[in-house]
From TrEMBL:
InterPro entries: Pectate_lyase_5 (IPR046776)
Native source species: Lactobacillus johnsonii
Pfam family, one: Pectate_lyase_5
Name under which the protein is recorded: Uncharacterized protein
Top-level taxonomy: Bacteria, Bacillati, Bacillota, Bacilli, Lactobacillales
Domain of life: Bacteria
Length: 597
């Protein structure tokens, strides 16, 4: 490795350090780049960085508790582009250093270098696969990573030896098939640290991107699977507010995660390409193991009720299996847009089992007011969104501590006036947090949308948009402004019969913050906190609009817009519209995104 004129090392047999470093020095390093010693100031190997492939030729590299470290002295005009391929890689208990350790290099040296694992079978114990906070990591071929981290104690979100991979950016190459299985024992204790940037995170991450601009790319037709059976293990997490996770056309992401702080995707934006899919099976509940003390002298909030807003820590109901723009402290005041974009034929499927929690399945924003933030989610043509939630958490009664300043709604938490708060979820399956945000959710001719709470003992919201401007659009295709498609809308609420309507287009608006679980009244402008009677407003009293499908429309019954029912018959129908029916009235009286009226 120290000979800069060698660009490929081919194994002819297994290499093991079980008998000491001599095997590494003789077989791989030939002079010791640095095995099992962090020696950044004394490394004598200068200007040796280059593109280097270590081809195991189906043999094993067993580093034991050793590691190979890289330093600034190694880099001059060239950088490291290291590829490990066609090998079994083993390592164990190396004090938090990864088998190939880039963290001793500076930011510039790392960001211009890279490491690739191509057709590698990694079997790791008490260590992570890679640590280089500013280094791009590439996963290729048929790569299997089994990592038992084994570290217990205190730790922060980016603590290196609590993560499977720590890097700048992650790329899974096109057509690759990569499986990560990452587990860890629970921490013995967690304490909240009230200093900016130093809060405790009660879980590990399969992949942690610790760069300000790191992205995640799952290449075309690739498959990336992450499995974990232990509490408090995230999937893919980036600290960069502007980061994007891109699942390219035809690619698949599959995650199977346990309970606790087990968010599957934590990023600034999420793009799902044509015919690509994300499939998450989880028990995520975001319940802390220790008490949260957000304010000095405040009442302790114990798990599993998780009634903290997560402004300064990792607990609370703002974190979901998919969390977008959910950055928790020192948010910049500059305008930021965070988005989920599902392209044609794509799929997002999240199934959560029976979990004692109140968290959403998809969340945008943190527990702050989210000034200057715009949150958008678009479900594109032919796309599938399947959200099924078995959560059954109990909502606490309203207090200024748990919910912020009181607003004009008189009832405990959200829900119908005078209802028992224990029967209602404050979060929707999709939730956009923050009273100063601008929120939009668009269903643009999707193939299938299922928003379902599978626990039969609680009612609950499907959508919650808290911002100053909140809009939901259901758009069908049309010719000459006449809809040619219809959505079959089936609404089933606890204690009521199922109702079915066919609509062509729908737009709804709702109130601000904790009044967001009610329609904005007809004639009312956005950015308003609603009155005490707002929760009684029906769709037919709102400033929204709906166009019924040709099969359910007729004279004076085909369209509602901001308090006005269109009179007469729809034009340019070609005789497709039926005679007057009660479908529009039924929809206006009964449809909502929240809870039984």
């Amino acid at each position: 490795m120290i000979n800069k004129d060698i660009n490929e090392i081919d194994f002819t047999n297994d290499i093991s350090s079980s008998t000491g470093q001599s095997a590494l020095n003789t077989s791989l390093l030939s002079g010791e780049l640095s095995a099992n010693s962090s020696n950044p100031f004394n490394s004598t190997y200068k200007d040796i960085a280059r593109t280097l492939t270590i081809n195991g030729q189906n043999h094993t590299l067993d580093l034991g508790n050793n590691y190979i470290a890289f330093y600034n002295q190694n880099v001059n005009s060239n950088f490291w582009n290291l590829t490990l391929k066609n090998m079994t890689l083993k390592a164990n208990d190396n004090a938090g250093y990864s088998p190939f350790y880039f963290q001793n290099m500076g930011t510039n040296q790392q960001k211009n270098s890279s490491i690739t694992f191509d057709n590698v079978n990694a079997n790791l114990s008490k260590t992570q696969l890679f640590y280089g906070e500013d280094t791009p990591v590439i996963l290729a071929g048929n790569t299997i990573i089994k990592d038992d981290l084994g570290k217990t104690g205190l730790g922060s979100l980016g603590a290196g030896y609590y993560n499977g991979i720590v890097c700048r950016s992650l790329t899974v190459t096109p057509d690759a098939n990569v499986t990560m299985t990452v587990n860890t024992p629970d921490y013995a204790m967690n304490l909240w640290k009230p200093t900016p940037g130093a809060y405790v995170e009660e879980n590990n991450n399969a992949v942690w991107l610790n760069s300000d601009d790191g992205n995640i790319t799952i290449g075309k037709n690739a498959k990336f699977t992450i499995n974990s059976t232990t509490q408090d293990m995230r999937g893919l997490a980036s600290r960069a507010a502007g980061s994007t996770m891109k699942v390219e056309d035809g690619a698949q992401v599959v995650m199977n995660l346990a309970n606790g702080h087990s968010t599957a995707i934590f990023a600034g934006n999420l793009d799902v390409g044509k015919n690509a899919s994300i499939d998450i099976t989880t028990m995520q509940d975001n319940n802390s193991e220790a008490a949260s003390l957000p304010i000095a002298g405040a009442t302790v909030v114990n798990s599993p009720l998780n009634w903290t807003n997560g402004v300064l820590n990792a607990n609370g109901y703002h974190y979901a299996p998919i969390s977008i723009g959910s950055f928790t402290f020192l948010q910049p005041l500059t305008h930021e847009t965070h988005a989920i974009n599902m392209e044609q034929g794509s799929t997002i499927r999240i199934h959560r089992g029976k979990a004692n929690t109140i968290t959403p399945l998809i969340s945008f924003g943190s527990g702050s007011s989210n000034n200057n933030k715009t949150y958008t989610m678009t479900v594109g043509k032919g796309a599938t969104l399947d959200l099924q939630d078995g959560a059954y958490g109990t909502v606490r009664a309203y207090t200024s501590y748990t919910m912020g300043l009181a607003n004009s709604f008189p009832h405990a938490v959200e829900g119908p006036l005078n209802s028992q708060p224990t029967s209602f979820y404050p979060c929707g399956l999709i939730t956009m947090f923050g009273v100063n945000g601008v929120n939009s959710l668009t269903f643009n001719s999707p193939k299938y949308v299922n928003l379902q709470r599978t626990d039969t003992t609680k009612t609950g919201s499907l959508i919650r948009l808290e911002g100053g401007t909140n809009e939901v659009n259901v758009n069908g295709s049309s010719i000459n402004s006449i809809p040619t498609s219809a959505y079959d809308v089936k609404q089933t609420m606890l204690g009521k019969d199922s109702q079915n309507w066919q609509i062509s287009q729908l737009t709804t608006y709702n109130g601000i913050g904790n009044t967001g679980l009610a329609f904005m009244p007809a004639g009312k402008k956005q950015n308003s906190v609603l009155s005490t009677n707002a929760e009684t407003y029906t769709m037919g009293m709102s400033n929204g609009k709906v166009l019924m499908s040709p099969t359910q429309s007729g004279l004076n019954t085909y369209q509602y817009n901001n308090g006005v029912i269109a009179q007469g018959a729809p034009t340019q129908t070609g005789g497709n519209y039926v005679q007057s029916k009660d479908n529009l009235k039924s929809f206006l009286d009964n449809f909502n995104w929240w809870t039984p009226a």
